[in-house]
Amino acid sequence: MTTPTTAAGPGTLTLRPLDPPRDAELLHGWLTHPKSAFWMMRDAEPVDVERAYTELAADEHQDAYLGLHDGVPAFLMERYDPAHRELVGLYEPEPGDVGMHFLVAPTDRPVHGFTRAVITAVMTELFADPATRRVVVEPDVSNTAVHALNAAVGFVPEREIVKPEKKALLSFCTREQFEGAVSA
Which of 145, 108, 99 is nearest to 126 (CA)? Predict the structure, then answer.
């Protein structure tokens, strides 16, 4: 994965590979925060977070990145192969499909437009790989805030699916849909 440099209003967004031992304590604070309820880790301990991301890092079908805003940790990005993780048996994957999750660090002082800048940077990074033809997401059906963000960058909902942990809205975004949405 490259390290994108994306303007985010007053600052720059970059990504670096997540380092579970180094980043677990930070992520624990983000993932257990009430604003991160859709990540379903509210009761996790720091050791649980480190274990989960150590397992993810060892998995050839997924990886995680820490997003930095002007060098300061500000978001999390997970990338996965939906033919092998998250969506196995729930839809028919196509060549070039890439799954994605992202989380913006909870804050008491939100910056208008920051979350949209983050998802735009994440999508830019995913489509920087010429093999990526389409990004797949499966947010909780009740997470209307992320549905609006997804639509803003070109995602089109296909249908509701039932995963073991939630009812999700399966949505797709092609490179052309993303480019059209962000250039509009």
Answer: 99
